[in-house]
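Two proteins were folded this term; both appear here.
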Amino acid sequence: MDDQELVRKCIRRDNNAREELFRRYSPRLLALCLRYTHSRAEADDLLQDAFIKIFDRIGLFRWQGEGSLMRWMSRLTLNLFFDRKRRKRLQSEVDIGPLEESLTDEPDYAETLQVPPEKLKSMIQGLPDRYRTVFQLYCIDHLSHREIARMLGIKEKSSSADLSRAKSLLAKQIKQYLHEN
């Protein structure tokens, strides 16, 4: 059954279709949740709440071609995550001091490839929450600074500055790792 038919059946509250939607898309949505949360348990909770919201709002979905269902569910999941953060006031403000003078000491691509993927993931997870979030939304999820600003309730310039700071911190960590290994 294709995605369009699956959505039509979910709108009619067909439980078999709902199970199929969950089976088909939960692994990718769980991976998305794991990128933004601090634990597997938190990711599982977010995924469960996301599917409740997906099933509740499936009638609002509009087909826009292949992949549009996954994009819609991903956006809904991310919005749920950020709404939670705002409500719980976990979105802490980060000191917006002067930007690092320059990223000229930034490691090149070949050097970055010398860092094991799990170590690089750990470095990203170790960034301050706001920097990590902006970095992931921009570099991994390919959102614009305008979209990020709207989603996080910050200014576009803040998004851009946070990305620059995240890259600077990562560059320092990568250089340190390469120096030590």
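Next, the second protein.
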Amino acid sequence: MSAEQIVAFIQWAVSSGLIAAGVFFVFVGAVGVLRLPDFYTRLHAAGVTDTLGAELILMGLMVHAGWSLDTLKLGLIGLFLFLTSPTSTHAVANAAYTAGLKPLVGRFRPPRPGEEADDEGGAS
């Protein structure tokens, strides 16, 4: 193997690892959005997915692209996501709290059949 082939293989391995890690975090965040009990915890899972998962995937694509204009464009997209995603997540959470949506406090227990849920999200 020549040095150029070794460098290409290392680039491929790092790129694949970053993309796989990003896909893992996107998958975990999607499961969190489906499984978590209330709006705020689901919003947190979505925010982590948006920030960490997308950033790792973009970094993997940047490594795969090498030194090119595409790398600069992907870097700018990553910077934009890094700045706007937490800001928008905070704005949505603040709007929900201002509108009166209370966070689930205490241990979550879904209501049993025939029971009504109280304001805390648990059974009464």
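The chain has a mean pLDDT of 88. The longest helix spans residues 3-35. These notes refer to the second protein only.
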